[in-house]
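Repro:
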Amino acid sequence: AALAAELGAHVYVDTAAESSAAALQRIGGADVILATAPQSEVIAGLVGGLRPRGTLMLVAASAEPMQVNPLAFLSGKKIHGWPSGSAIDCEDAMNFSVLTGVRPKVEVFPLAQANEAFGVMITNKARFRVVLTP
């Protein structure tokens, strides 16, 4: 919760204590959810947190199938995907960061610990972006 607040969150949801969909509906539901973690089960659980006509935007996805109740779409909810990472997307993100003062959180490893850094990253134990320094 403290890290979420430090990063600018207005609301923190502890998904170990309650479902993300229930927490989002308690505060009125979400117009847009940006799914950045490639976990199909977690992403599918977010659909219930959308308001009617809300959009779930996927910018990361797992190869695992995602099960979503088709009744959700009768209220106009949508799921979209966006293959982010193009040069113009990166330029837009950088311009937005400069404009709004956004700065990255990184875990820095010396180049001599590249194997350790890779291990942290590949086992999904990195809290932030892993960066090597010479």
